[in-house]
Amino acid sequence: MTHHHDTTEIDWDVMAPLLERGAELHRPAHQQAAAWITERIPVAGVRRILDIGSGPGVVTCLLAEAFPYAEVVAVDASPALLDRARQRAGSTGLGDRVRTHCTELPQGLGELGDADLIWAGSSLHHIGDQRAALEGFAGLLRSDGLLALVEGGLTARHLPRDTGIGSPDLEARLDKAGAEWFNEMRAKLPGAKREVEDWRALLAAVGLAPSGTRSFLLDLPAPLPHAVREQLVAHFTRLREIFADRLAADDAATLDLLLTPEDPRGLLLRDDTFLLTARTVYTARRG
């Protein structure tokens, strides 16, 4: 029997820098998503927004910019991440309209108050009973309010299929390790229940009217700027840590070489790395 260290517990405070840099890289896609949402709900009528699982507040501030009449509440369970959200709002001149609320969901749903728009960005899958959480979100929406649910999309790609190191298709095998990790993480969540991830059907099942779905592409081609390469190093370092017991020895060795700063075949110095991914936003309205 194979034994794995328990790496499914996520320390969000430790993850804060990686999350913030990653959100910054995805800013163009999030800006497009925010602009698309403004076409689905009257901007002047949106006076209160909940950003569920806000993290460091990058999207919180984008929503505040897109909806200039709204108070935006960043909701997260990590005080450190919410500190970053407050600092970001203050530095961008949005501090008077951005609030933070620290709570664990779904227990804290009743504390949040109602909203015209709820953005749940890649946060629902961290709640055990996703259907119940969606019911809770639906109950917070004001009449004609909109829920924007970000789940799924396309798994990010960063490397050519054959990097010239080890066996080709490294990222495909990392995907497999990631799927195993994700399933174990979800199984350990309180009240975890399996759901067919037909998000439109789930939104309809909790009494909302699906009102449009769209995916937003992030395409940063090679050669990447140095700052983005540094983020790739941080990303793959994280994968190397949490998948340590799930990788074949040759794949672990390949990752170690890719993470070697001075090696020309490593992530920092090679010119063929890129970032290509897509995130899907499902919207639904309360009648």
Task: Explain what the structure shows.
It is a single chain. The protein has 287 residues and is an alpha/beta fold. The protein has one domain: Vaccinia Virus protein VP39 (Rossmann fold). It has nine helices and seven strands. The protein has helices spanning 12-25, 27-38, 58-66, 79-91, 130-140, 170-187, 199-205, 226-242, 249-258; strands spanning 48-52, 71-76, 98-102, 115-121, 141-157, 209-220, 275-285. A seven-stranded mixed sheet has the order 3-2-1-4-5-7-6. Strand 2 (71-76), helix 4 and strand 3 (98-102) form a beta-alpha-beta unit. Helix 1 runs antiparallel to helix 8 (226-242). The chain is globular and about 55 Å long. Residues 1-5 have low confidence and may be disordered.
The percent range for strand residues is: 15-25%
Computed structural class? alpha/beta
CATH superfamily: Vaccinia Virus protein VP39
N-to-C order of helices and strands: HHEHEHEEHEHHEHHE
What CATH calls the topology is Rossmann fold
Q: Widest sheet: strand order?
A: 3-2-1-4-5-7-6
Shape: globular
What's the N-to-C terminus distance? 53 Å
Spans of at least 5 consecutive residues with low confidence: 1-5
Task: Tell me about the largest β-sheet.
Answer: 7 strands, mixed
Q: Could you tell me the number of beta strands?
A: 7
| CATH architectural designation | 3-Layer(aba) Sandwich
- Look at the structure and give the CATH class: Alpha Beta
Distinct helical segment count: 9
Radius of gyration: 20 Å
